[in-house]
């Protein structure tokens, strides 16, 4: 997956909008670990408009989601490195 731009930059952005975009960009089953890690990073970028706006009503939830996606990206890369997964 190439590095897509963030299509969600409006001030009325909600977590629902972000989750809908995340779901439509999910890598296919059996995707290589690097593609999955890039997707997790992309999810963090999609959440950025909310995580940067402390006054957004869903800021706290978005920060938690971004932290989990960031962790998953790192864990996916580390597992692939340790296991030599280069599918």
Q: Could you characterize what this model shows?
A:
The protein has 87 residues and is an all-alpha fold. The protein contains 3 helices and no strands. Helix 2 runs antiparallel to helix 3.
Overall morphology: elongated
Largest sheet: none
Number of helices: 3
What percent of the residues sit in helical stretches (DSSP H or I)? 55-70%
Which structural category fits the helices and strands?
mainly alpha
In whole angstroms, how far apart are the ends? 15 Å
Report the radius of gyration as a whole number of Å: 14 Å
Strand % is under 5%
Nearest-integer average pLDDT: 87
Number of strands: 0
The H/E string reads HHH
Q: Which segments are poorly predicted (pLDDT under 50) over 5 or more consecutive residues? A: none
Key phrases:
mainly alpha, 87 residues
Summarize the structure.
This protein has helices spanning 15-24, 33-51, 59-83. It has 87 residues and is mainly α. The longest helix is centred in the last third of the chain and has 25 residues, at 59-83.
């Amino acid at each position: 997956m190439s590095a897509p731009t963030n299509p969600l930059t409006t001030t009325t952005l909600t977590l629902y909008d972000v989750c809908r975009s995340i779901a439509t960009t999910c890598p296919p089953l059996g995707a290589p670990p690097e593609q999955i890690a890039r997707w997790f990073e992309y999810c963090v970028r999609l959440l950025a408009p909310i995580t940067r706006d402390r006054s957004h009503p869903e800021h706290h939830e978005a920060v938690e989601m971004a932290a989990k996606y960031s962790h998953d990206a790192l864990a996916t890369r580390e597992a692939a490195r340790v296991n030599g997964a280069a599918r």
